[in-house]
Amino acid sequence: MRIAQVAPPWLAVPPKGYGGIEWVVSLVADGLVERGHDVTLFATGDSRTKARLAFAFDEAPGPTFLNSAFHDTVHTLLAYEDPERFDLYHVHSTFSALAAGVMSGRPLVHTVHGAFTPDMRRIYAEIADRAWFVAISEAQRRLMPELRYAGVVYNGIDLDLYPLRKD
Questions:
Q1: Can you tell me the mean pLDDT for 158-164?
Q2: pLDDT score for 129
Q3: Is the pTM of this model over 0.90?
Q4: In what order do the strands lie in the sheet with 88-91?
Q5: What's the pLDDT tens digit per position in 137-157?
Q6: Taking a C-beta distance cutoff of 8 angstroms, is the pair 153, 133 a contact?
């Protein structure tokens, strides 16, 4: 399957410091490649991945630019430049990427990484029948049960990075 993974455009994948969404995207993208899928990761140029990397920005602009409309728009335009290349979009990113995704006509799944703010609720209600949603917990799913969920997938970790120790 040809899968586009769309990460937020502000931090590298995986992140060099904190970045919960970016760690999840990294594990999902690499895991899909390991399972034989053709994956393109839309992230920043300083990202590391087993997937094909596509980027609009050579380096992550960093947390100072979180929610920058400029970075969001340029990144989203790249991700949807040729939607026919992909069988599926998996959006972990912004409202722009989500809106463009439902307009692209390609199947789309969106992992809900945050809380359901009033703004998010309105946008999700508008696209509820045009995307599949993934909740990161049953508790999160119960907060907006009217969405069309593909399922609940708890955030994973790479167990090799956290070996079991007695202390």
A1: 82
A2: 93
A3: yes
A4: 52-55, 38-43, 2-6, 88-91, 108-111, 132-135, 149-152
A5: 999 999 999 999 999 999 888
A6: no
Residue 19 has pLDDT above 80, yes or no: no
pLDDT score, position 166 = 86
Three-state secondary structure of the chain: CEEEEECCCCCCCCCCCCCHHHHHHHHHHHHHHHCCCEEEEEECCCCCCCCEEEECCCCCCCHHHCCCHHHHHHHHHHHCCCHHHCCEEEECCCHHHHHHHHHHCCCEEEECCCCCCHHHHHHHHHHCCCCEEEECCHHHHHHCCCCCEEEECCCCCCHHHCCCCCC
**What domains, with CATH codes, occur in the chain?**
2-159 (3.40.50.2000)
